Structures are given as structure tokens and as C-alpha cells.
Fold:
Amino acid sequence: MSRPKRETASEQFDLFLPYIADLPMRDQREMMERPFFSLAKSKRAKPIDYTSPDGKLWVHVSANPDYGMATIWDADILIYCASMLADMARRGVNDVPRKLHLMPYDLLRAIGRPTTGRAYELLAQALDRLVATTIKTNIRAENRREATFSWLDGWNQLVDERTERSRGMTIELSNWFWEGVMMKGGVLSIDRAYFDITGGRERWLYKVARKHAGGAGEGGFAISMPVLFEKSGAEGQYRRFKFEMLKLVEKDDLPGYTLSLETARDGEPMIRMRRVDGKGGAERGLPASLAANEDGMEQAVEQAFSSPRAVLPESGTKASAPRKRKPSSRTAAASAQVEGTPETPSRQAVSLGKPAAARDAETAGVVDASQLIRRTVIGLSEAATRGFMTDETIDFLRRTCPGWDLHALHADFERWVAVSPERTPADWQRAFIGWVKRHHEKHGRNLRG
Structure:
């Protein structure tokens, strides 16, 4: 396989994607639980053959003998690309492309790599492996028996035709990967601390924990060791894999997740994974992901439209008079779900011919579907922007509070919020803007001209 050719600046794709320091990192959901990558740092030529326990899904990964199989460290490049695609979709970009123009320096910084000359050489080798590795699978192979693809359709270095200086590179994503990121519920947010994990099996175990235990609540998620072994695609015998997994459980140092050991009915060990915010450098209050928020929004809308009115669980509290002051959307949604308190007269859509007591009893547990949908959508959209700055927030603060390092201030703001649960804002962006404006008023005179 020959080295990709160098394009001139006149041939380059004109969409430039700037590096954003606090861009939320996303991983493609299906790639987090199936064995698509080598977990070893040494060159792997042996194929991966995986079939799900129910026999419905299968994956076959084959390596080019010259380059070897793409590794789980190479997959960091795909995580960066998935994050850029998800961010463009969030910002409403039309026709999100498969061919991305980016700067290697930005990519390396985003995935926690050094920016030395050796690092650029290793990046080129990783890109070659992503192009050379071939995957066959029936996952998302609608209307056909299987899909065959490589992670990247190609990559090129861009140089200025006149000065011969580097103008970055283009990476063309495979259609299978692009579709997986862009489909509804296709990505999950991950901790930036993931990139600090050095071991291949630890990295893969984090992905499994994030996929299954990230939103599983306090009980977490448990998986038996034999099933875990099959999902890993790891080389070697089960006995060795089991020994290494037990060691990882004993160390229990995955960022954001705690591991414990249980025993299954067949006597084999099981690993239980639970989310612990802030553990090992993980974020506090890791968002479930934009995809998860969309899923929750869709379920709420479907439930609301299943009948003319959405009947809430009985809480034992009586309906109160409509409030004069409009609360925040999150507070309103929470109070409606817990207390069933009406907010507007439209919620009193009951038969006027019934006795007053009967009307009160019905109104206490019934809300107008449109109001429920509106509050749910607003609340989820606000929660989806927690933990990072939107483009609108950055633009506004650069105009109104110039001269500050917004990324450093945002980190200070997150630490300030983390001190007390009572400080958790209902609207993250508006709270951060207010915090910066107060900081600017107090310390703006200290800025150097």
C-alpha cells in the first residue's frame, strides 16, 4: 500500500474545522461494545471473528500484513472526527461532510498526544492502519447481507503550492462510520480522562462501562467474564484474559467508573460497573450525550401524544392555584412530574358538568400534553449544554467581556459549581455568562491593554 499523495492547496477541501479546546468528546455507540480494534500495541495480523450470543450480529476484522490491524489507540482519531461531526450537527450545519479538513496539531492536542516530530510520524502510521484495516459486518447492513469497509476511505497531506508549507490534511471517513455517527442516538459522550488510559484492555473496558453503565443509575451494570471475553476480541486464551480482568477490578482505577466482582449462577465471575462522577479525573455530571437527550425527548413526546392528556403518577398532593411567577423550565418540569401542580388554566381541561371534587381530583393528575412537551424539550436542551461553552456563549462573551481566557474561566466556573450541589444551574450557559460578567466587573481593571 503506497503512501497517500500530497494535494496542493488548490485541490484542498474548503471546509476548515477549527480546534475547540473544550469540545465535548463523542464516541460512536456501536463501536464501544463490539470488537473492532486490536487491543495490543504490538502489530496484530490475526483477524477478529465475533458473533453475538444470540447469533444475530457478527463482525470480521482483517489486517493488512504490511500495516497491521488498527488499534484502539488509532480509534482516538475516529473519536475526534465523531466529536467534530456531532458538534456540526448540534450547530445546525447543513450537509455535514464525510471529508474533513483539519490540522494535525489540533487533533493531537485534542486526544492528549504530544506534538513532537515523532508524534506526527505515529499519526501518519495510525491513519495508514485505519485505511488498510478491512471490516465486514452485518451491523446496520439493511437490504444487504453484509457491509464491507475501511475506517477511512483515504487521507491526504495538504501543502501550499507556492511555499510548500503544510496546510493541514484531509481525512475522508467511511460511509458506514459517518452514518453511525449521524444517525439518531449514534454517539455517546466520554470523559477526556479516557485519553490518559495507557492499557488497551483498560481502554476497551472503559468503553464497555460507558456504553452500558453510564446511564444505568446507582445499580450500574454487570456482565459475566465469558461474555466480556467474546466482546473484547482479545488474542490469547480465556484464562489469561480472566486473570487480567480480575487484576483490573482489583486496581479499580478506570476514570469515572468503579468496578466490583460478583459471581454468576454458573460460578463464573461477573464485573459490575457503576458511574462515579469525578473519579480518576473524570468529569462531574458527565452528560448522557446529545443522543441520549434526544432519545429521552422522543420518548416524552411519544408518551405525551399517546392520549389527549398525559396522566402523571399520583403523588398524593392536591392541585394548587396557578403560579404568578414563571419558574425555570427545569423547575417547572420537575414540579409537574413530582407534584402534579397546574401551571396554566389550559391544564384544567375537564368536564364542567362534573362535581367540583371530581374535577379537582382529575386536575391533580392530568397535564396538558403540549405543556409537558414544551417543558421537556427546553429542559433537555439546557441539560445538553452542560459542561461546555456553546459557540453563541463564546461569541457573546468575547464581545462583552474581552481580554479573558474563556476556557480557563470556564474551568474555574465548573470548580465553583462542583463545591455545592445547590450551585448547579438550571441553564448552564446563562449561568456561566452571568458568572463571567460579574468576574469582569470585579477584575476587568487588572487586564493589561
About this structure: The CA atoms of residues 326 and 332 lie 8 Å apart. Confidence is low (pLDDT under 50) at residues 5-20, 287-370, 372-383.
